[in-house]
Every structure is written in C-alpha cells, then in structure tokens.
Amino acid sequence: MSPEQPKLDTKQQEPAAAPEPPPPPPPVEASPGVAEKPDKDVWKEDYEELVKPEEPPKPVKRTKMPWGAILITFLLILILILWTVFSPNIMPQEGDTYTSSPTHANWGNYTGYRDIWAGNMSWGVSVSGHATSAGNRSIELKVLVTKVSERPGNWFFRGTAISLKNVSVFIGPSDNTTFLASMSNHTELEYGVLAIVPVVFSGPGTYPLVVKVRFLVYEIMRIGFIPLESVNVYPVFIDSPVVVA
C-alpha cells in the first residue's frame, strides 16, 4: 500500500480573492426647492478669486421734481397776467362828434386815416379857443384827440389806445413855420385826450396858426399789449388867423 498522501488544504490551494473596493459615497441629496448647481457654478466656487463677482442690481432712481421748470412756468403765467391787467384802456370810437363840434372844434379840425397790419383806424383832432382882446395878447388852445372809427385786423386784437407825446403850435404856413408854444398839460378823458396849450404873442399883428400833434398808439390784445406806431398829425390849420390888437 502506498503511503498515505497528505491531504491538500483546499483553503491553501484556492487563490486569494481580491479585496472589494469601498462602497461609493452616498449621493448628496439636494435640498427641496434648490436646484443642483451646474458645473460652471461649481467651477466658480473653486476659483472664485479669479472670477469677478457679479454686480448687484442698481437701485431705480426716482425722478426728481422739475422745480426749475415749474418756477419758470409760474413766472411766465404771472407776467402774462400782469401784462394783460395793466394794459391801457381801449379808446372808444366817437365818430365825428368832436371833429364837427362848434364847441370842441371852433378853431379847426383834422381827421386822419391809418391802414396797417393790425387793422385800420381814423384819428380826429379838434382845436378850440377864444379870440384875443385888445388888452390881452395870450390865448389858450384846447386840442382834443379822439378815435373816429376802428376795425381790428383779426380776433386777437381788441382795439387801440393812445399816449399823447406832444402838441405844439407854430406860426406861419406849413412849409415855413416858427415855433410858438407847446402843451403845458394833458388830461385823459373817457372819450379822448385833451391838451392845453397856452400861447403868448410877442406883439400886435395877424398870426396864422398851425397845430402839430404826436401820439403813440398801443394795440390792446387778448393777452397783453404792444406799442403799435407813432402817429404825427401835421398840419392842423386854424380856420382863420388870430388878430392881436
């Protein structure tokens, strides 16, 4: 009998099994309501020193009240109101009531017609006075300026007024006159403007007289007024010469 062979240890004969790899880490569960960050955000977290941080949104600027524009608008409105309130009174139309009057025009009269861009109007000048006496070499002329008729150019123009600038009296014909006197005062009446011209003669004689009137016309508008034109009324002849004894 053959010698008994030793039994092989099967545990020693089987090759040793490779060690099992460690189990993977459990997946990170995302918090509810928070989306998983994309790879680029992960990269930005790792290298946030190299990435420029995002600028926070700029706050919305509130529009400031335009106080300058409001103040300018208020001043313009105030100026327009004052400009209108302090406009001259429109002179009424009197027709030929005063230019043909034996009381207001007993020494002479004149009617002049004007037609310009603002409309057309007729101005009248009436001259009244009293004859001199043998012992008195002075007279007082009253010169009345009135509006005979008027038609404004359009709806925006309401009418005209005047400001009397000068009333002078001359001796002689219109082409060769000698200054004699000018108005001492004038008064604005409801129907016109009346000027007083004191005249003193140097000695006895016969004096043909001529009157010159100058006034400024204002156009009164719906808003405000403007100087329109300067009118010279010349000559206004005295109907008959003044005889000084």
What does this structure look like?
The protein is mainly β and 245 residues long. The protein has a domain at 108-244: Immunoglobulin-like, CATH 2.60.40. 13% of the residues lie in helices and 40% in strands. The chain has helices spanning 10-13, 39-46, 67-85; strands at 108-116, 119-128, 138-152, 157-171, 178-182, 185-188, 193-200, 205-207, 209-221, 225-237, 242-244. The strands form three sheets. The protein has a five-stranded antiparallel beta sheet with strand order 1-2-3-7-6, with no helix packed on it. Strands 5-4-9-10 form a four-stranded antiparallel beta sheet, with no helix packed on it. It has a two-stranded antiparallel sheet with strand order 8-11. A hairpin with a 2-residue loop joins strand 1 and strand 2. It starts with 9 loop residues before the first helix and ends with a strand. The model has no long low-confidence stretch (mean pLDDT 84).
